[in-house]
Amino acid sequence: MRQRRLLRGLATALLAVVGLLAWSGPGEAQVNILDKVKKRGKLICAVNAKLPGFGYLTPQGRYEGFDVDFCRALAAAIFSDSGRLEFVPTTAKERFTVLQTGEADVLFRNTTWTISRDTSVGLDFGPTTFYDGQGMMVTKKSGIKKLEDMKNASICVQTGTTTELNLADQFRKRGVPYKAVVFEDADATAGAYEQGRCDGFTTDISGLISRKSIMKDPGAHVILPQVMSKEPLGPAWAHGDNNWGDVVKWLVYGLVIAEEFGITSKNVDEHVNSKEPEIARMLGGDKEAPKAMGLDPKWLYNAIKQVGNYGEIFARHLGPGTPFSLERGVNDLWTKGGLIYAPPIR
Ligand SMILES: N[C@@H](CCC(=O)N[C@@H](CS)C(=O)NCC(=O)O)C(=O)O
């Protein structure tokens, strides 16, 4: 009896020591994510399922959107096959937990890069793929023209977002009292506003444009011209895996550089033997950098060929001919007056 108790005590102490040694700080990645992805044979990407144009689960059961295509491109870069991929749909509240628990390898879900998420929440962020800002939607018939007209208004907002926090800052700053009506997901938030339970609906401007497209009467709503915040949206993953960070970062940069050079999914084969040294390097000529990352020399060729460059992804989901018809604006290449810029492949 005494012996057994002693043994159990020893085992507990041993587990505690092992646990202490294995613990590498809050939110630290415990594994090499790229190895884990390769062993599993597919990438697990956390996305939005309710934001048409960005991340949306169609009634046919297919994930589509601007963010979703970066997941496909990443799978193509890792496996030479954009289909080696599983999606995890996430609400704003759940999205960081799936990274911390290792349930998903990366998050491409209209997620704003902020200091708290990058530090205390235990995440790392990649290059901004979409520069956005927070907006406010109201009904046309309300006659509201600016935020200052919203005294004592009720405002539908989603929990777990930067939106909720900015709303408080912006209205306090303006000295405008308001009532936040908080919901867990986009359907509930936008739905409550549409049913007239709130005077306003606030989120990223991209989110407002997206949700407006599926409202019963889109023409009955307007987005106020004031922009309440900076919302740099981009990929995130569990903090502490530098190599995984390189893979995600360079995938995004590579697709931007492809647009800069006019390399598309249609013409990439014609560029493989390019006389332009950077193009030749990025499409298979450079073996060193891909090897250091754990990727095939054709990583970027495969991503471009199977999914397309940054501009193609933008045009496919958000550009003219889509329900959103978004201008590139600040999301145009730096060479065209926008903020989309990538370091060189050299
Ligand atoms: N960019 C902001 C907002 C992101 C966000 O979650 N926006 C809502 C806007 S509607 C959304 O996408 N909801 C979808 C859902 O959770 O179902 C953030 O990172 O906190």
Q: Beta-strand level of the residues, as a percent range? A: 15-25%
Might you state the CATH topology name of the largest domain?
Answer: D-Maltodextrin-Binding Protein, domain 2
Number of separate helices: 14
CATH homologous superfamily classification of the largest domain: Periplasmic binding protein-like II
- Element-level helix/strand string: HHEEEEHEHEHEEEEHEHEHEEEHHHHHH
Helix content: 25-40%
User: Main β-sheet, in a few words?
Assistant: 5 strands, mixed
> What is the top-level CATH class of the largest domain?
Alpha Beta
Q: What form results from the Cα inertia axes?
A: globular
Which blocks of ≥5 consecutive residues have pLDDT under 50?
1-29
Ligands in the model, by name, code or SMILES, are: glutathione
Secondary structure tally: strands: 15
Given helix and strand content, the structural type is alpha/beta
Q: Any guess at the CATH architecture of the largest domain?
A: 3-Layer(aba) Sandwich
What would the average pLDDT be, to the nearest integer?
A: 93
Q: How many structurally independent domains?
A: 2
Cα end-to-end separation: 68 Å
Instruction: Give the radius of gyration.
Output: 23 Å
